[in-house]
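Hey team,

Filing this mostly as a record. A colleague (T.K.) asked me to run one chain through the structure pipeline before their review meeting, and I want the input and output archived in the tracker in case anyone asks later how it was produced. No errors, nothing strange. Just documentation.

Input sequence:
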Amino acid sequence: MASNAWIVALGLVVALFFFGAIAYVAETNNSGYAQLLNSTPSTTIVPPNKTAIAPILLTDPPSLPVGTTSLVVSYSNLSVYISGKGSPRWVNATGRGLNNLLIFQNQSVVIGYANLTLNATISAMRYQIDSVEINVYGDTYPVTIPVNASNVTAEITGSTNGSYNVTSITSILLSMMPTVSGYSVNGTSNYTLTAVQSRLALIANRSVTASARAGIGTILGVSANGQGIISIS
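Output structure:
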C-alpha cells in the first residue's frame, strides 16, 4: 500500500510539472508576440504630390527702332514661382538659348519645360537676358544691357480658364516685350535695351499643351498682348 501511495504521489508531481511547463511556454509566447506588436511603430504613408510637365512658350510684341529686321535675344536661368502646395518656392525650368523675337509675333515658340506640382498656384516667372543683338537696315549691332535689365521677373496677368493653378494640360506663355533705343555717337550707331516688360499667362488647352510637349523650338499659333489676352489659332 505504501508503494502504491508513493506511485500516486509521484504521478501527481509529474502532472503538475507538465501543466506548469505548458502554461509557462504559452505565457512566454504571448508575451513575446505582444512585445513584437508594440515594437512595430504605427506609420502613415503619405503619397508624394503628383506633378505635370508645363511647357514654356515665348511670344513677343517688341518696341524697336524703324528698320529693324531681327532682334536676337540670348536667355537662361528660367524658373517659375509656385505656392499653395508646400512652401512657396522658385522651381527651376529646363531650357536656355537664343531666338530672333521678330519671328514670333502673333505666334510662339517652346523655350523650356517646368516640372510643377499639380494644383499649385503659378504667380510669376523669371529669366536672365545674357545678350542681345539687333539688325537695322542690314547692319548688325550689339545691344547694351543695363544691369537692372538683365534679370527679368514676369508676373501673371491672364489665363484661358480663369485659374492660375497647375493642371495636366497647363502651358505657360511668356510675353517678352523689350524696348530698344538707338542713338548715334560720332557717326556710330549705338543701341541700348532700355526696358523689358514681361507678362505671364496660363493656357489650359489640351491640344496646345500636347503640341508644345513635342520639344524645344516647336512653333505654335499662340500669342498674347501685355494684358494677358491670349489668341490661339
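Quick notes for T.K.: The longest strand covers residues 188-204. The CA atoms of residues 10 and 20 lie 15 Å apart.
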